[in-house]
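Field reference: sequence -> structure
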Amino acid sequence: MSSTTPTHPLFLLSLQLLTSSLDHPSDRDRLSLRVHGLPVVKAARNVHVIGNADFAYPRGSSPIASLLRGASILLRLNSNWDWFINLSAHDYPLVTQDDLLHILSYTPKDLNFVNHTSYIGWKEARRLKPIIVDPGLYLAEKTGMFYATQKRDFPSAYQLFSGSPTSVLNRKFVEFCVLGSDNLPRTLLMYLANSPSSLLSYVPTVVCNSPEFKESAVNHNLQYASYSASSSDSPRHLNGSDLKDMLQSGSAFATQFRPNDPILDRIDREILGRRRGSVVPGGWCVGERNNTCGEWGDADILRPGPGAKRFERRITELLKNGTFRTQQCLIE
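Structure field:
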């Protein structure tokens, strides 16, 4: 199990497998046994492994279904949470769980941290105009994605925005997408069902076309990413030479990493204070020095560290003097 799996008792976590990367039903069972084998998870009962793996193409539209499925499950399990953060196996934390909880507890709960732009150049048009059929929406086995010979014009009923797969969303907005009476989220879902890489557009477009949430958008997803000069379609893989820039960014997370890259061990050791095979320690850990999380205290006691100061600086810069409102949902 990766240390990206939060184990703080105050977290509520849904783990979802995609059959594009995990092709055997036993993988789900192994993950569930490993996660629930952690004493803190067993006691807090706050980590839920979704029963059936979703069949999703990262470059198709099926990832939106997985996102909304995870959100709806968390709403059904417990509506007493403030922030929804969707992460993938390519992402990694740059702050401890105490750092994250401490700073977000003081952050206004009516904001949504979403990368978004309405700019559509030739690269964006190449991604948004094709019509696809994603087999992940109706087939149980892996097969190729279908492309139609025709392309379609951009919609005129709403303005398309594009961003990144990861966002930090407030609960009210998540409820709007999953349970709300407004038809915009469902209309957009049907439009994007036939668009490539549509997860990049769904959340930004819903936020920026909704009068209720348009002014809640902060144009940053609190995640560090770096793009190579040759390609801006997806972030490059990070390594040890990027650590200084990652920390200076003040971001809570970074993407993307190769599995088992040595930089992950370095982040565990130097940033998160996590030992191999253990959980990230926090204020709730009151055990002996060599096994601090072997005994638990009050989960509401937080011990924020240097990561909280970096993260606080980033949040303060984003919200300072309300200047973030000048960057909200601009039509370019």
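Note: The chain has a mean pLDDT of 89.
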